[in-house]
Amino acid sequence: xxxxxxxxxxxxxxxxxxxxFRKGILGFExxxxxxxxxxxxxxxxxxxxxxxxxxxxxxxxxxxxxxFFQGYDVRLEEAVIEKLEIEQPEDVLVLTTVTAQGDLHQxxxxxxxxxxxxxxxxxxxxxxxxxxxYKIKQPLFERNQKAVIGQV
Amino acid sequence: xxxxxxxxxxxxxxxxxxEITITAVEGDTVKLGIxxxxxxxxxxxxxxLEIQAENKLATASHLDLNEILKIKK
Lengths: 152, 73
Description:
- The complex is a heterodimer.
- Chain A is mainly beta.
- In chain A, 11% of the residues lie in helices and 29% in strands.
- Chain A has three helices and eleven strands.
- The longest helix of chain A has 6 residues, at 78-83.
- Chain B is α+β, with helices and mostly antiparallel strands.
- Chain B contains two helices and three strands.
- Chain B has helices at 45-59, 65-69; strands at 11-14, 18-26, 29-35.
- Chain B has a three-stranded antiparallel sheet with strand order 1-2-3, with no helix packed on it.
- Chain B is elongated.
- Chain B starts with 10 loop residues before the first strand and ends with a helix.
């Protein structure tokens, strides 16, 4: 299954921001329940927050990498589709974690291991992509950004 | 930890469904062939450790929300 677009509108206005990560997220295996929030309410920002419902200190800044990196391409394996009970690509949001120490222009994002979220079933998991050129520390702002991501 | 001695071409079976075969031994490198159901994910451990470390770093990040919101899709 090929996933290209990310939409959160469908869950807007409803009490459906709670996402369960059954296996946790690598390094945070004890945190299973998260709240997903867009960084702004206008839908113009490619950023989201994922806040652990159990631990106030566990919060991720996430990026809708599809809208940010042209050519970023994620194909979900059968196993992921089954585990997240995915029925159609429109229900799926693929977001990457952002790492930064104060300066957004030095920030990196993890294209190697995106979080895949089935909004309809409110389930998510972190997957590891088998593509060598998807970096764990991909700078957000880099010259020839499209060229870097576009290679297959 | 269970330690088993295996020769080239020999296998072990885990839980009736995962088979790991020693396909080659060259110096200190062992090549493994793995047969497992498709829902089992298999990765080198280094990748897991790197991602785990990156997730920890990600949650320790700090950024000014106003800066973040300047960036549009």
